[in-house]
Design brief:
This protein is α/β, with parallel strands linked by helices and 398 residues long. It has two domains: 10-44 and 295-395, Aspartate Aminotransferase, domain 1; 49-289, Aspartate Aminotransferase, domain 2. 42% of the residues lie in helices and 13% in strands. The chain is built from 13 helices and 14 strands. The protein has helices at residues 10-15, 19-29, 47-58, 72-86, 100-112, 127-135, 156-168, 191-203, 261-274, 280-289, 294-316, 342-352, 379-395; strands spanning 34-35, 95-98, 118-123, 139-144, 175-179, 207-211, 237-242, 255-259, 321-322, 331-332, 335-336, 355-356, 358-359, 371-374. A seven-stranded mixed beta sheet has the order 2-8-7-6-5-3-4, with helices on both faces. The chain has a three-stranded antiparallel beta sheet with strand order 10-14-13, with helices on one face. α5 (100-112) runs parallel beside α6 (127-135) and α11 runs parallel beside α13. It is globular and about 60 Å long.
Length: 398
Amino acid sequence: MMLSTPGLATRIRLIGTSPFARYEHLTHKYPQAVNLCGAVPGVPVPPHIHEAVVKAVGDGLADRYGAVPGLPKLQEAICNKLREVNGIPTEPEQIVVTVGASEALSIASLLLIEPGDVVMMLSPSYPSHIESVILAGGRVAYVPLLEADQWRFEAEALSIAWEHSLKEFEREPKVLILCDPLNPTGSCLSWESLSEIADFALKHELWVITDEVYEDYCFEGNTHFSLGCIQEMRPRIISCFSLSKAYAMPGWRVGYLVADASLSRSAVTIHDQVAVCVPLASQYAALAALSTPKEWLSGVRETVISSRQALVEGFSRLKFFLLAQPTSGLFGFPAIRGASGSVQFVEQIAEEAGVLLFPGLGFGPSGEGHVRVSFGVQKGVLEEAIERLNVWETRAPE
């Protein structure tokens, strides 16, 4: 819905009511509903993170402004992680610590997108990616995934979207926003697909922004690959990451971007204007998080896999949902049978079944007719939600 308050800038009127605002409305309207919209694993933060923050605060290290790009120790720790995990050789000057990956993605959009520019993105797409393009004055050319084959990417879709941009917008796309692992579909790109995307981007001289916040959650032998590990891509890519998902710490609001030094210097300029710096307490939490033993994350992943199995088995018994098994991330994206629209369906489910789901319409045109369901919750919460949906279905008309 387009907002119509007099005096608002066109960019905010074009966005309208955010899907997340609708979700917040439902949480307040139905406080007893079981929430399956969460985007983090249902586990506590590792205790050493809290301990590190308490020490930093007690030592007076969190009371002042910090360096705009981030604590030097944190930048170095991020560099080490990028080299070891993502295969991206990085120096500290290429790192900007941000207020979550959301700020990193917004900075990247403001750096690269000018009014009228066309931005390609896989569809369904994360709502904030769509909105960041609109805020920057850009327009979206969607690259649809194949739902019939578990939301598989086909390289031909890039060429089709390119031609569509030429016809509809009368200009070539400038930027590609790539979310992998994919939110909301729960799928991930193979190395072959990533290589095809890189070849296309290089051929057409596209800038690329990546969202890799679910990099730690790939299943069934699937592996996350960073586009930035391809040497030829590095001058034209801004890669965005988060600590929220891996370490269950979204409230600390720490993400980061990595880019060529010339790009990162410009990113610091925007970051300085909108945030100055990430709160130092949060940065010390992030520094501690990056020292978390790998065994802890392996244990979290096993917990998530168990919840995912409960989701798949539970939804297979529900007649109003058709769910393909997610292979990454923390979500399933089932089709809904017989519903007139996902927004109305979600409101109905909240009121009649007492379960909160996320409407697919918020993820772009190919998201309509679906809902996003999180298995990043405690297994008991998930089982309660499935039981409520099962009871609701026994009462619902065919």
